[in-house]
Amino acid sequence: MSAMVIWGLKLLSEVKNLTDGDYETEWVTDIRYLGVNFTSAKMLTVDMSMQIRKFYAASNSVLHNSTYVSEMSRVHLIEAYALSLLTYACEAFNMPAAQDHGVSVCWNNVYRRLLKCISGNR
Fold first, then answer.
1. Do 107 and 58 share a domain, yes or no?
2. pLDDT of the chain along its 122 residues, tens only?
């Protein structure tokens, strides 16, 4: 199934579906490409909610399954497995300040949880 998304000034205008014989291509408000959700708006926007959800799931898994592992090993595991999920495709688009802040909050929350566990073990 093919679909098309509109970005820019033509976003609010009525655009007809494209047809090629019996085949019709429809317009959609968001599209998933290579694991990234692009949302229709005046500018190219990316929905980071899936990456944030996967980041928290991976971080929780690492922290839960590495209870008796050294602190530095836990940090390296989180940076290796979870951070890549959060920053996937971030270089491909300009992230607005609010979205950038949201990503920073996620990263800081995991570090706070890790440091709380470290200080609690001492």
1. yes
2. 577 677 765 655 666 777 777 777 777 777 787 777 787 777 777 788 888 899 999 999 998 998 888 888 888 999 898 888 888 877 777 777 888 888 889 989 988 888 775 555 54
Number of structural domains the chain divides into = 2
108 and 81 in a single domain? The answer is yes
Q: How many C-beta atoms surround the C-beta of residue 87 within 10 A?
A: 13
Whether residues 16 and 39 share a domain: the answer is yes
What's the chain look like in SS3? CCEECCCCHHHHCCCCCEEECCEEEEECCEEEECCEEEECCCCCEEECHHHHHHHHHHHHHHHHHCCCCCHHHHHHHHHHHHHHHHCCCHHHCCCCHHHHHHHHHHHHHHHHHHHHHHHHHC
Token pair recorded at residue 111: 């570090």
